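thread from #wetlab-drylab

HS: before we spend reagent money on co-crystallization trials with pyridoxal-5'-phosphate, can we at least see a predicted complex? here's what I'd submit
DV: go for it
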Amino acid sequence: LAAMSLSYEQFRRYLGDRRLPLAMVDLDAFDRNLARVLRTLEGHPARLRIATKSLRVVELLRRLERGAGARFGGFMCYALEEAAHLFDHGFDDLLVAYPIYQASDLALASDLVRRGCKMTLMVDAAPTVARLDEAASAGDVVLSLVICVDMALELAAGRVHLGVRRSPLRTPAEVVRLARDIASRPLLRFAGIMGYEAQVAGLGDANPFAPALNGLKALIRRASVSEVRTRRRAIVTALGEAGLPPGIVNGGGSGSLDSTPEEAVITEVAAGSAFLKPHSFDYYKSRTMRDLEPAAFFALEVTRQPSAGMVTCLGGGYVASGPPGADKIPLPWRPEGLSLLSNEMCGEVQTPLDARGCSTPLGVGDPVVFRHAKAGELAERFNRYLLLQGGEIVDTVPTYRGQGRCFF
Ligand SMILES: Cc1ncc(COP(=O)(O)O)c(C=O)c1O
């Protein structure tokens, strides 16, 4: 993996004497990653729905839409206001993947539909359906709804739950009941189902930070892939028998590209992180994940040398969300051989590094390149991304944050 990525010298040439810290995307790697993701869909009908939360940069979303061509299957947004932001920038086919409830979101949703936006909202419970029905009536619009289905693996009669805590709907009967509720309301339209198998997509089974758990994780992934396939097929069959065949059957994420596209019932696969390959995606045995290249980076400036064999960079405390752990902290990437100090790690104002294993001599003023643990969260720390391609900086584009927007 290290060999695939830009060298320290290449980064230095790109950076020149630009002000640090800065964040950048290697478009060559980004485009190759898109080609790799599209390859996982070959021979299958599924289209690609781009998970916007993992980019949060309008220009990169546009590039993915263009590059996906006929495989493009819309965007998966994480917030209603974000969907509105994207619609205002000319994007369409926006599926908001997490349920909305508050009045301002409902009003905005109706407004977007009235303005001609192709939008789909997520539900997983009857009270939310009833509220969206009221909103549709108040706004005099028809709202399209997708039902979120729990794809977690439950063992020991539900005492062990492996996966995320999202939808309470697991069985075909539960999903059909809610789909009937939706279909019975004239201003709501049942558009399909979505199920995110997080215990496959988000479970790195080659994690150097917790090696003892890798065998178990690989087992969970394997068991889940076949269980998820069976459950999804049973739900789609039951919906068809109820006269409610789902138009959308969305599944997976970047971490399950080896398995989700192969399911016959899947109409679209969601992916976002794959294009940037944050370092938490290095720790998978999955073939597709291993093929991907790191494409997003940030550079800090060395401003101190507290002792021989040590350098300290200004800034860097960009810790990722999720259970805290070493795999949530930025990874020193270039030059190679730098390591974080266990008692400081990446700090609010500075990040000291042990440079004894580093063959490149570093001094004050030099850049150090890092990778974030997650794909989208880096964009919350920077106003702009530098876009690198073929040895040149080809553009500087704003992140959502740089556009003055922060959705949550
Ligand atoms: C509903 C849903 N689909 C897909 C994804 C996968 O996103 P990515 O491809 O960026 O890992 C997520 C991530 O949390 C998600 O919540």
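DV: Residues 51, 54, 97, 196, 201, 253-255, 270-274, 375 surround pyridoxal-5'-phosphate (CB under 6 Å).
HS: ok that's useful, forwarding to the group
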